[in-house]
């Protein structure tokens, strides 16, 4: 006696609901899950066809059964996520965010996650739920406990890639082993070597800018300078975008696509296996292939005799990690990503604020002129790193426009974690929202204002625990070097028709910043 369709559908709904209990504990990867759905559809089709011998009827009925099963599963998931039994039920936040990670994926794609998080914290308070299993906390006191106890979530592996770079390594032990060589690559001794190449690129940019009589896009030139500097430091050059006047190979375009891609897909890392099946490899893979080609090209030119970050991390044995060729290419692309865009964004923001305030520009120039009187190559690095007003301007630019605006997310896997007076349930992702914290009046006086003086003391509130932009030594040295030289060489101003407000409003955050060009007039001093 065949089971009537209505009964089959009811059984499917109940099965869907029950399967949630299993998937809650052991979330399947997307491909096996899809395979399971196809297999079930085939079984349902076979069962119904065997009974009716009608192809169309069996197709529609089996489709209805599978839809009922998925309906049961998704309804159960949705109810659970909104229910008081969910481990994060006590945290307030938008209903859509509690239901799905696509909520934050949408704001990342739109480029407004930084503003959305700021708004959500103002509405819901310090601890908020921004995903089914994700929290955002804007309490500066929580930053240290979070980063000292938790490690990276799978969101770092959102996009298909040929191999893990340091930054996408989510296994803590493997990461620690790989980090040994990186630490060596940033030793004091090595930093001196990178400074020389940064100085050469800075001199090249100054010479180029000195020839420009018309309005220039400073953000464009800073970006080319940063690519060339990072290319030199990481794998002995080969970019020469400054000489070409453009990023002819399209590194920045692929990088920005890649970061947006990772940003959105990082919210739903289970999609990665599906994306990997697409005919086009996707921007991250393309970026790694780009970097790989560049590494091979440079190695051929230098006969493998290089003295750069990549050669150090490839040849280090102390970390007991021997990088594969693909891992080396992945790390090379990471250096370009970690170094060039962060530094060029920090520089662009810094220049935007210095140019906007003639008094700041003048005070900075006076400090620089009293510290240095010789040419660029005589600029002493230790003096440059100790100039209080320059340092204050750099910190202030990083505060207002942090190159990484969303705090790097952390995950506690299967161990509940104590953060202040909260016990974070296992399997929770948590991040401090850097942009919102840096512009919070509880942390910084008049926070929307560029006020370098706050870093020199006497202005409160000034909560240094709230300021964690993360930054590696060579990056900020390069930014200081270029700023010092630009300000000493030129009087910099905005063209009459440049609207700073429109420029500020053009900022979109897709993990990295995208914005209008910073147009300036330069007058040689
Ligand atoms: C203003 C400049 C910079 C900012 C704001 C910045 C920001 C960050 C952030 C937020 C992280 C943490 C990533 C995470 O754990 O998710 C990080 C890590 C890192 N950055 Fe930077 N960065 C800057 C410049 C640089 C430069 C110039 C380099 C080197 C070429 C660099 C190399 C690294 C490395 C090696 C890591 C560690 C990655 C890991 O542990 O997997 N950064 N940076």
UniProtKB/TrEMBL annotation:
The keyword NADP does not apply. The keyword Iron applies. Its cofactor is heme. The chain crosses the membrane at residues 30-49, 55-80. Pathway: Secondary metabolite biosynthesis. Keywords: Iron, Membrane, Metal-binding, Monooxygenase, Oxidoreductase, Transmembrane, Transmembrane helix. InterPro entries: Cyt_P450, Cyt_P450_E_grp-I, Cyt_P450_sf, Cytochrome_P450_monoxygenase. GO terms for molecular function: heme binding; iron ion binding; monooxygenase activity; oxidoreductase activity, acting on paired donors, with incorporation or reduction of molecular oxygen. Pfam families: p450. This is Cytochrome P450. Gene3D superfamilies: Cytochrome P450 (1.10.630.10). Belongs to the cytochrome P450 family.
């Amino acid at each position: 006696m065949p089971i009537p369709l209505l009964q089959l559908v009811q059984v499917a709904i109940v099965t869907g609901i029950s399967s949630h209990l299993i998937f809650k504990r052991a979330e399947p990867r997307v491909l096996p899950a899809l395979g399971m759905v196809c297999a079930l559809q085939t079984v349902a089709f076979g069962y119904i066809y065997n009974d009716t011998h009608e192809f169309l009827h069996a197709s529609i009925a089996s489709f209805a059964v599978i839809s009922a099963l998925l309906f049961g599963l998704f309804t159960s998931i949705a109810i659970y996520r909104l229910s008081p039994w969910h481990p994060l039920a006590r945290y307030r936040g938008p209903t859509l965010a509690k239901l799905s990670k696509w909520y934050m994926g949408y704001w990342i794609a739109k480029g407004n996650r930084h503003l959305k998080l700021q708004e959500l914290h103002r509405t819901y308070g310090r601890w908020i739920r921004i995903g089914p299993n994700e929290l955002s906390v804007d309490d500066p006191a929580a930053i240290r406990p979070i980063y000292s106890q938790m490690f990276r979530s799978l969101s770092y592996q959102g996009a298909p890639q040929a191999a893990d770079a340091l930054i996408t390594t989510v296994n803590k032990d493997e990461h620690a082993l790989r980090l040994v060589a990186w630490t060596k690559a940033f030793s004091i001794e090595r930093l001196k070597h990178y400074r020389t190449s940064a100085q050469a690129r800075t001199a090249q940019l100054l010479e180029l800018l000195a020839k420009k009589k018309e309005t220039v896009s400073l953000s464009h030139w800073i970006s080319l300078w940063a690519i060339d500097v990072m290319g030199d430091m990481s794998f002995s050059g080969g970019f020469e975008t400054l000489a070409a006047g453009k990023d002819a190979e399209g590194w920045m375009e692929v990088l920005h696509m890649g970061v947006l891609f990772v940003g959105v897909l990082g919210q739903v890392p289970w999609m990665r296996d599906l994306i990997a099946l697409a005919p086009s490899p996707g921007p991250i893979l393309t970026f790694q292939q780009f970097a790989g080609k560049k590494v091979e090209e440079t190695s051929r030119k230098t006969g493998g005799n290089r003295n750069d970050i990549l050669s150090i991390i490839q040849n280090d044995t102390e970390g007991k990690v021997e990088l594969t060729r693909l891992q080396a290419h992945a790390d090379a692309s990471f250096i370009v990503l970690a170094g060039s865009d962060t530094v060029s964004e920090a520089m662009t923001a810094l220049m935007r604020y210095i140019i906007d305030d003639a008094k700041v520009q003048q005070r900075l120039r006076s400090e620089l002129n009293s510290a240095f009187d010789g040419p660029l190559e005589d600029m002493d690095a230790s003096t440059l790193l100790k100039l209080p007003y320059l340092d204050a301007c750099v910190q202030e630019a990083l505060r207002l426009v942090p190159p990484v605006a969303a705090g790097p997310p952390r995950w506690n896997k299967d161990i509940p974690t104590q953060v202040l007076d909260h016990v974070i349930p296992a399997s929770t992702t948590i991040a401090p929202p850097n942009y919102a914290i840096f512009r919070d009046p509880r942390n910084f006086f008049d926070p929307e204002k560029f006020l370098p003086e706050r870093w020199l003391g006497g202005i409160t509130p000034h909560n240094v625990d709230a300021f964690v932009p993360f930054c590696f030594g060579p990056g900020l040295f390069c930014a200081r070097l270029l700023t010092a030289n630009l300000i000493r060489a030129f009087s910099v101003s905005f063209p009459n028709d440049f609207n700073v407000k429109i420029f500020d409003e053009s900022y979109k955050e897709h993990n990295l910043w995208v914005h209008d060009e910073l147009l300036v007039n330069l007058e040689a001093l």
